Amino acid sequence: MAKRVESPSSINTFKQCKRKYYYQYIQKLPTQSNIHQVRGNIAHSTLENFYNLDTSALTEENFARKCKESIQTFCLHYWKKAQNQLHQLSLSPDQERFYFEETMLMLMNWTNHFVEDLSSLTKKKNLSVQEAFLELTPVREQEYASKEHSVRGFIDAIHHVDDEVHIIDYKTNATFEMKESIRLQLAIYSLLYFEKHGRMPSKVGIFFLRHKLKLLPVDEQLLNLAKTEIKEIHQHTCRTEEMGDYPKTITPLCKWSTGKCDFYDTCKPHQKE
Ligand code: SF4
Questions:
Q1: Model pTM greater than 0.90?
Q2: Does the domain formed by 139-227 have CATH 3.40.190.10?
């Protein structure tokens, strides 16, 4: 069987529950959108486009206010643009307002960090606001693909910090926790970067939008983690596409108080076979 092209999320799905992977990536059953995905996309688009801001009118006195206004404008714009998707979620007006305000708060939190970084960079390197803004602007939304490992991923932001490279992903997660699934995602990004550029990034991390940036150093061990997990999934999926070879992993992630796995009704994990 031909090697599939995997991604951090397909590999993490495989690790969480092989049956879920089977339904999603082999049978290609439809998945359902949810508010966390929709608002995550809105937050990503807002941050991606914020850096396109025309900085010519920024001054030391107004840049903090202008940055905040710009983020608010982008967030509102992308929220309106996602109205069709939001409508399909059947949220009540109160629920939609709650998620909008919460998303805006997260983005304001991120902006406060950005403003602080910009302010200290102007002082530290004696730069103008425009020069500091440019220096803080990352390469954004880059697709990286590896033929050798048959894996690909989209990297939210690549920052060049002096002679270091930092790879950052944005997350709206409630917890400020570097879970194993996140570590693996970052390990795969590091491997993809290494393969394309011939050097490891110095650090990889998550900007938890409710909290702050958390970085990990990149080393051989992290790259090996990615290689091992990628190899494992290819060995399995190249060998078989029979449903029986993709067992269910029944955990509280099948169904919880406010939701369920996209394939719960097909899978019927709690029904005796
Ligand atoms: S319902 Fe549970 S066992 Fe079934 S596919 Fe989803 S996560 Fe796996």
A1: yes
A2: no
